[in-house]
């Protein structure tokens, strides 16, 4: 009856195809009656009786991972695959539900399936049985739910088991089964808070959304030991999904399973249909994404001169007492805070990999080392505590200067919460405003990442900005920091100003603000005298010093 118990040629669709190719075929009365009955089911139980998954889909359904994802080309079948995954679970005939797995092991004609499911059973990796509480998240209600997801559920679900079909009901937006399972529909244009609250057994994202929405929904599956499903065409290229889904799928013993599906994998697609999709593609990158389901970097890289190897990336070393440790914070009320530390070596005394020494003539430019990072959730007091622990345990010293995203000084429109900068000050962290201007700062970062003869000094053999090799978030963001694509097929359209994609760039913003500050407004702390009169000796431009009475934190603001 089910696709995982019968070979394709033995199923109703296989027999129908055989009849279509053969003038005569001998069927017993019993076989003819069974065939007629099952073909009749087509009108109200298409997935259960006539659906035939391709090889990729077949094994996708059999994976017990807590996150399963499809990167698919246009019309590759990614939505259908995930919708049927949910229907099987809601109706109770999913191959990984406890009540089904023994039957499949006993009856399946596929040896590989039998061995695979024995391992799943022995490890106890079953998925929940009905009633199931599911959620589907679309881009919007009008197109994503009413035109795609809702009709797809009705198309494949067992009609006789449905109780309510209300995906287009603005007050309810859900489909209910008679066994009390349901799938609710939500959209990415709803407020983030509306995605919180209740637990769910399975949540499906149809097309990519902001990472904050994915994470908020992921929290809804923790208590149920539920699953996250994802299916999208990577029209934005490489994004947060690479780090949080597809890279993790390649890790040993990962609980993430991911596949790529091409437009050619869907048997419904004709060559003419695929050629039509290709004709709409702007370039070869678009073809890779829209036809082959690849996640390809779009636009040119911003920092193409940097590599994930020496001399740009170095092993961690203990920080000397000399130099200045600058911390930059990109705080966010609902998503991860990003914190970056850069140690500024004004004297150039750190020997580098492969016996490369800092040249004596360095254009009076200090060397900068990216030495620490945090990318964590939490309120401001929690952030301050994490910063203090990181500096004590990892860096071995406190920051000398804090630079913050200017947005931290913006007041909450509801007046419920004070600006984040004030909350940081309450915790003894005294930030100064970083720059908002990206273009100039990016040029300065390029300058210090380059090993070219930019100062007219041919002896330069390393960049001025280097990173410790364990700063994974920073290095990932730098690799994926891209210029926005220009409109049109060609690259000659200069009608739009060139700027980087405003996504997954929190460490890049921190990096830019610190580098710009160091190069434009240098201030090195040489000595701090703690007892009255409190003093700070410095070199560089004139600076204004303020002290927090309850801590050793110092506010240093350059007089410009």
Characterize this entry briefly.
With 560 residues, the protein is an alpha/beta fold.
Could you tell me the CATH topology label of the largest domain: Nucleotidyltransferase, domain 5
Number of separate domains: 4
Number of helical regions? 17
Share of helix among residues?
A: 25-40%
CATH architecture of the largest domain: 2-Layer Sandwich
Report the portion of residues in β strands: 15-25%
- Our Rg estimate from Cα atoms comes to 29 Å
Largest sheet: 8 strands, mixed
CATH class of the largest domain: Alpha Beta
The spatial strand order of the largest sheet comes to: 3-4-5-2-6-7-1-8
- Distance linking N and C termini: 78 Å
Decide which structural class fits the backbone. Answer: alpha/beta
Approximate shape: elongated
Textual characterization of the structure:
- The protein has 560 residues and is an alpha/beta fold.
- It folds into four domains: 1-52, no CATH class; 66-92 and 130-298, Rossmann fold (3-Layer(aba) Sandwich), CATH 3.40.50; 95-126, no CATH class; 313-484 and 499-558, Nucleotidyltransferase, domain 5, CATH 3.30.420.280.
- It contains 17 helices and 19 strands.
- It has helices at residues 12-21, 29-40, 46-49, 55-61, 78-91, 98-107, 111-123, 141-156, 211-219, 240-249, 271-280, 284-290, 380-395, 420-426, 438-449, 472-480, 506-520, and strands at residues 67-72, 133-138, 162-166, 174-177, 182-187, 202-206, 227-232, 256-261, 313-314, 324-330, 337-345, 367-376, 401-404, 431-433, 465-468, 523-529, 535-540, 543-547, 554-558.
- The strands form four sheets. It has an eight-stranded mixed β-sheet with strand order 3-4-5-2-6-7-1-8, with helices on both faces.
- Strand 13, helix 14 and strand 14 form a beta-alpha-beta unit.
- Helix 5 (78-91) packs across helix 8 (141-156) and helix 15 packs across helix 17 (506-520).
- The radius of gyration is 29 Å and the shape is elongated.
- Residues 352-363, 453-458, 486-496 and 531-538 have low confidence and may be disordered.
């Amino acid at each position: 009856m089910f696709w995982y118990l019968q070979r394709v040629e033995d199923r109703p669709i296989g027999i129908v195809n055989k009849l279509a190719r053969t003038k005569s075929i001998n069927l017993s009365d019993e076989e003819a009656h069974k065939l007629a009955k099952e073909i009749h089911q087509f009108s109200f139980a298409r997935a259960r009786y006539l659906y035939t998954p391709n090889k990729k889909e077949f094994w996708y359904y059999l994976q017990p991972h807590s996150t399963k994802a499809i990167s698919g080309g246009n019309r590759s079948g990614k939505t259908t695959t995930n919708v049927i995954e949910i229907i099987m679970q809601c109706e109770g005939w999913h191959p990984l539900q406890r009540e089904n797995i023994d039957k499949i092991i006993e009856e399946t004609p596929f040896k590989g399936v039998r061995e695979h499911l024995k391992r799943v059973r022995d490890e106890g990796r079953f998925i929940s049985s009905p009633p199931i509480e599911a959620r589907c998240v679309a881009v919007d209600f009008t197109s994503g739910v009413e035109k795609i997801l809702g009709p797809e559920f009705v198309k494949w679900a067992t009609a006789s088991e449905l109780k309510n079909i209300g995906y287009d009901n603005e007050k309810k937006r859900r489909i209910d089964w008679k066994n009390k399972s349901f799938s609710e529909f939500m959209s990415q244009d709803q407020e983030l808070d509306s995605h919180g609250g209740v637990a769910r057994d399975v949540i499906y994202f149809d097309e990519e959304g902001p990472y904050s929405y994915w994470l908020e929904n992921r929290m809804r599956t923790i208590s149920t030991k539920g699953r996250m499903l994802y299916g999208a065409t990577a029209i934005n290229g490489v994004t947060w999904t690479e780090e949080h889904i597809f890279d993790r799928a390649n890790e040993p013993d990962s609980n993430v399973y991911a596949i790529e599906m091409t437009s050619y994998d869907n048997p419904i697609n004709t060559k003419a249909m695929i050629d039509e999709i290709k004709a709409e593609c702007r370039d070869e990158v678009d073809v890779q994404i829209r036809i082959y389901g690849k996640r390809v970097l779009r636009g040119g890289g911003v920092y193409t001169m940097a590599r994930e190897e020496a001399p740009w990336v170095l092993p961690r070393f203990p920080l000397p007492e000399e130099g200045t440790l600058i911390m930059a914070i990109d705080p966010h009320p609902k998503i991860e805070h990003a914190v970056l530390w850069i140690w500024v070596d004004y004297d150039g005394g750190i020997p580098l990999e492969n016996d490369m020494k800092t040249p004596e003539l360095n254009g009076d430019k200090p060397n900068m080392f990216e030495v620490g990072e945090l990318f964590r959730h939490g309120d401001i007091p929690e952030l301050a505590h994490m910063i203090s622990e990181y500096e004590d345990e990892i860096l071995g010293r406190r920051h000398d200067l804090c630079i913050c995203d200017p947005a931290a000084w913006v007041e909450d429109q509801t007046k419920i919460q004070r600006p984040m900068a004030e909350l940081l000050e309450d915790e003894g962290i005294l930030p100064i405003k970083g720059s908002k201007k990206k273009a100039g700062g990016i040029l300065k970062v390029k300058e210090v990442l380059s090993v070219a003869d930019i100062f007219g000094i041919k002896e330069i053999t390393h960049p001025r900005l280097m990173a410790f090799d364990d700063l994974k978030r920073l290095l990932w963001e730098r690799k994926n920091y891209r210029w926005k694509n220009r409109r049109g097929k060609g690259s000659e359209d200069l009608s739009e100003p060139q700027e980087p994609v405003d996504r997954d760039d929190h460490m890049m913003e921190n990096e830019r603000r610190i580098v710009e500050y160091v190069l434009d407004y240098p201030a090195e702390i040489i000595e701090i005298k703690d007892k009255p009169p409190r003093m700070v000796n410095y070199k560089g431009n004139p600076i204004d010093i303020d002290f927090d009475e309850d801590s050793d934190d110092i506010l240093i603001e350059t007089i410009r």
